[in-house]
Amino acid sequence: MNGLHHVNIDYCECDNAGSAGFHYQQLLRCGFFPATHIEPHSCGTFAVLAHFHMLNLQGKIAGYDYYSGLEKLTDNAGLSKIKDCYKAFMRMVREWQHLKMLKRAGRAHFLSGIKGTKSGELALICPACPHPNINLPKDWKDRPPEERFLYTLFLAIDACFRLKRRLVSSEKKDPGLGTGWAFFVEDKAYRKYLLTVTDQNEISSCTSLSALDHANSKFSA
């Protein structure tokens, strides 16, 4: 990874070019991930996408900061005008991470393929939670009462009543990739459910508990 580059690419246009595939397929075979499958003009190498993916997960490096670093590697003095490909880069990152999730779930080995993915099938099970036949002893059901707490599943939810950043765009402008396939529920079903519930007046003995006082307002956490 040493910056942003202008690269001339000659696609296969032979008489039997059909066997070579479309332009985006030829790019993928060469290790370039296209920002779009329709007349791609911007690409990211598999190496740079994998590198950012790892740093994003382990080092919490934001996409904007990583891309800014690529710009600095290209021209740290700021003497030349660099084409802004930040949006294209983030689109590639999003698709790359989605494909990685599908790959690790083994969806290519299912007869139904990616389209046959069901709700929650891409979610990873919690390794710390008790799972029979996986991380529990065979006699866990027969343990004495004073030891049963060792195999109890504890579920908790925090006090965040609202995801504010969910309002920055719309499904039409920013459609999801495989919504409902992992940890979040499917968006359309969730919005349909919201229409069936109304604001509730919470009863609390706590004085000035903001989490409850503003649960139904835009000031909620």
UniProtKB/TrEMBL annotation:
<feature type="domain" description="CxC2-like cysteine cluster KDZ transposase-associated">
    <location>
        <begin position="1"/>
        <end position="78"/>
    </location>
</feature>
<protein>
    <recommendedName>
        <fullName>CxC2-like cysteine cluster KDZ transposase-associated domain-containing protein</fullName>
    </recommendedName>
</protein>
<dbReference type="Pfam" id="PF18803">
    <property type="entry name" value="CxC2"/>
</dbReference>
<dbReference type="InterPro" id="IPR040521">
    <property type="entry name" value="KDZ"/>
</dbReference>
<dbReference type="InterPro" id="IPR041457">
    <property type="entry name" value="CxC2_KDZ-assoc"/>
</dbReference>
<dbReference type="Pfam" id="PF18758">
    <property type="entry name" value="KDZ"/>
</dbReference>
